[in-house]
Amino acid sequence: MKSIVALLGRMRAFVIRDFQLAISYRLAFFLRVLTILIVVTIAYYVSRIFLGKAELFTNWHDPLAAWITGLAVLNYFMTNFSSLANAIRSEQLQGTLESVLMTPISVPGLIVASSTLDFIEATLYSSLYLVFGAVFFGVTYQGSYLLAFLILILTTMVFASLGILSASFAMVFKKGDPIAVLLGTGTAVFSGVFFPPQLLPSAMRAVSRILPATYGLAAIRGVLIENNGLNEARGPIITLLSFLVVLLPVSLWVFSRAVRRAKREGSLIQY
Amino acid sequence: MPVAIAIRNLSKLYPGAFELRTLLGRAPRKRSVQALHDVSFDVNEGEIFGLIGPNGAGKTTLTKIIATLVQPTTGSVTVKGFDSVAQSAELRKLIGLAAAEERSFYWRLTVEQNLMFFARLYSIPARKAQAAIGELLALLDLEESARKRFGELSTGNKQRMAIARALLNKPPILLLDEPTRSLDPLAAARMRSFIGSLATGDPPVTILLTSHNLNEIEELCERIAIISHGRIRELDTPDRIRALHKARERVRLVLEGISIEHAVNVVAAALADAEVSQEGSRTVVSFWREVGDERLDHGLRAILANGTRVVACETQRASLLEVLEAYEREEAINRNGRP
Predict the structure, then answer these.
(1) Architecture of the domain defined by B248-316
(2) What pLDDT shows up at residue B44?
(3) Which residues of chain A make contact with B113, given a CB cutoff of 8 A?
(4) Which region among A234-243, B198-207, B209-218, B238-247 has the lowest average model confidence (pLDDT)?
(5) Are the Cβ atoms of B108 and A100 closer than 8 angstroms?
(6) Which contacts qualify for A188-193: CB closer than 8 Å, 24 or more apart?
(7) For chain B, where do the domains classified as CATH 3.40.50.300 start and end?
(8) Location of each CATH 3.30.70.3400 domain in chain B
(9) pLDDT band per the 50, 70, 90 thresholds, residue B183
(10) Cα nearest neighbour of A16 on chain B
(11) What is the dihedral of CA A172, A175, A176, A179, to 10 degrees?
């Protein structure tokens, strides 16, 4: 209990620090919001071309709803993944890692705490995709928001496990993390963010089937667009839980090995 | 006296990175480095202990192992009974590290915001933290810079910030790396006085000080360790270490009533390698001698026999720098067979 309170206190410290750093670049926030609005607007006009032509594909009756849901979820997953993966790296590059690690924070605690504001921001920005779609372009969402949120959390935990693996790689090898490259590109292309994975050739469809985002995205869209309930979402949820059961312990084990190796080699504080 | 830091048989080998070329039978580009060899010593509570040595001697590695940032290969470090590997979190609560690294702060945050961030990481309650920050800023003459961004501070103030941060949680042990490196002479003297006051305060702070400024080490430290190529070569009080290596001393005789040309002739026979120079109306003869040899006696006799008045006779003790250089020469001879 005491350690949870301490972790929450440190998360607060990082949130305040990152917020203070963020507001020292005031324009960045407004530009980001504007970018989201522009992307949603473009998606709306492009979706007019395809409206009514995608009936064959589940969740794609309204391409705009499918795109903005896909973009919101992709933004959420990738921000959270990269935030965890880059937590140590960014402190290393700034030169502050050593001084932070001199405080009683643990390496896992540092990774979680320094990603907190990114999680909050990702939640805000991802919500903006959905809000702009609803407010300016009449997109309607149905189904249980709670169920959609739980699926989002479950998929995020799978991505967090991959983020921890990626952080382990970055800690030992400093750069050139192949997990980030493969996951980022793979998720954008194969998981159904921009088009239904069913359109892919069968060999490529196999790639989409090994990506956790494919299941998370399909389930969230199913709930928000098709009004699916827990019964219909059960398949993707079980698949995501299977990913989590395998990836979480593996990633934590790899991470503890990486921390031990970096401390032994003295490379944790080098960049 | 109770021991604050106990270092036992500490060795550190930085392994060379894995390289694909080694699979092809090629030599690795980055070889492993033995940074510390079997280092053992204690630092007592309330002591200011100096660690001196040339660049690459192992000072930083040793400091980082004590600070739990690097793990030893063999041996152990315990701080007030806490092991640096097994109990690193508990140990870090007892230690403050002030390194001479400017990049260890957030440059776009103010002085106060930076210190408050670290205070939160130490779980210091907000009010207590604010009071401690105010007190430290006053002690270190940083009050006027409290709302300035860290990036706007002078190098000296950035260095003061490192010390303020190290003292935030009032640790009983302080690791200081070059604490006066970027300070002007007056500020450096005040900093030395401040460091000295920490060790005599209530409760006293134990300080491990690494520095290239040997005068500073001599002034502040009760004991010093000379580290060279990862080994502790000598560990004692500054006086005793100097005494061990006082093989030579420089003698300076200030004379009146003799011209420089005449002095050269007079001392030439008695002191073959003496240097003669003019300082105002006086002539100065300087020479090196083995401590206790007869050169001073011969030189003085020759000068006095000439009717010259000796105004002053000064001898310069071997400095810690000379001791350090002696170790380096010895190490080079051991390694290469020549200095």
Answers:
(1) 2-Layer Sandwich (3.30)
(2) 94
(3) 17, 20
(4) B238-247
(5) no
(6) A188/A74, A190/A214, A191/A74, A191/A217, A192/A70, A192/A217, A192/A218, A193/A67, A193/A70, A193/A71, A193/A73, A193/A74, A193/A217
(7) 3-244
(8) 248-316
(9) confident
(10) B117
(11) 60
Which residue from B70, B108, B122 is facing A21, i.e. has the nearest CB?
A: B108
Position A62 scores a pLDDT of: 83
Nearest to A104 among B93, B104, B113 (CB): B93
User: What are A's interface residues with B at a Cβ cutoff of 8 A?
Assistant: 6, 9-10, 12-13, 16-17, 20-21, 24, 94-96, 98-106, 260, 263-266, 268-269
**Average pLDDT of the residues in B322-333:** 72
Note whether A17 contacts B117, CB cutoff 8 Å: yes
Whether residue B255 contacts residue B283, with contact meaning beta carbons closer than 8 Å, is answered with yes
User: CB-CB: which of B93, B95, B105 is closest to A96?
Assistant: B105
Q: Are B165 and A99 inside 8 Å of each other by CB?
A: yes
E-strand stretches of B148-247: 173-177, 206-210, 223-228, 231-236
Residue A17 has a pLDDT of 93
Peptide bond into B203 cis (omega under 30): yes
pTM over 0.90: no
B16 touches chain A (CB under 8 A): no
ipTM: 0.82
Least Cα separation, residue B226 to chain A (angstroms)? 23
Region B3-244: CATH code: 3.40.50.300
A20, A100, A264: residue with CB nearest B113:
A20
- Coil vs helix vs strand at B304: helix
Mutate to test the interface with A, among B117, B128, B163, B168 (most CBs of A within 10 A): B117
- Here the tokens at position B317 are 């003790």
Instruction: Select the highest-mean-pLDDT range: A203-217, B17-31, B52-66, B113-127.
Output: B113-127
